[in-house]
Amino acid sequence: MPSTQTLRPSASPSLPIAMPGKSPYYSPPTHQVPYTRPIVSPPQPGSSVNTSAVPSLTSSGYAGSATGDSESSNGGASGVDLVEMLNDRLGNAVDPLPLDRSLARQAQTSGELNAKHRELLELQALAQRRLKSTRANFADGMRAAKEVKRDLDWTQKRVSTLKTKAERRYPAEYRSANERYPTSVDY
């Protein structure tokens, strides 16, 4: 038998698909949880679930991922909430203890800071009251000092006047008293 060869038209080469790159800010979790596939009910007859082993390119997950979650491309099987499933996975992927400890420490530090702030406000109010009373005392002292200076000036003037009158009226007695009790020049 003659061999028959069928010539196929050459297929045009496919272009590469643009894939999103990894973020440079991603840091892998420090606590790894082993991967477990959620238990899903089998697809209902008549539903349009993709049962092939190759994930669909229209999947909402990463295209070409090896998880095989083809149910997520069409909304999942009945009875499975995709958001709940993702929340469960993310909840198991993150260890909440360090976060809880840091939140507790933050709350404690915030409380201490608020207490210190209130204490500083009280001390500031106390300092303001003391400053006000000190200023009032200083003003009273200045008034008293000015009054004393005025009284001393008046007294000095009065003594000088009396001294001059006594010197004029009783010159001999004044001279003998001045020799007996000389005036000091220290003021």
Main attributes?
3 helices, 187 residues, mainly alpha, 0% strand
Sheet of most strands = none
What is the CA-CA span between the terminal residues? 150 Å
User: In total, how many beta strands?
Assistant: 0
Please report the number of helical segments. Answer: 3
Helix content: 40-55%
Poorly predicted runs are: 56-76
Shape: rod-shaped
Order of helices and strands: HHH
| Mean of pLDDT | 76
Give a topology summary:
Blueprint: H1 82-93, H2 96-169, H3 171-180
Helix pairs in contact: 2-3
Model description:
The protein is mainly alpha-helical and 187 residues long. It has helices at residues 82-93, 96-169, 171-180. Helix 2 (96-169) packs across helix 3 (171-180).
How do you describe this structure in short?
By secondary structure, this protein is mostly helical. It has three helices and no strands.
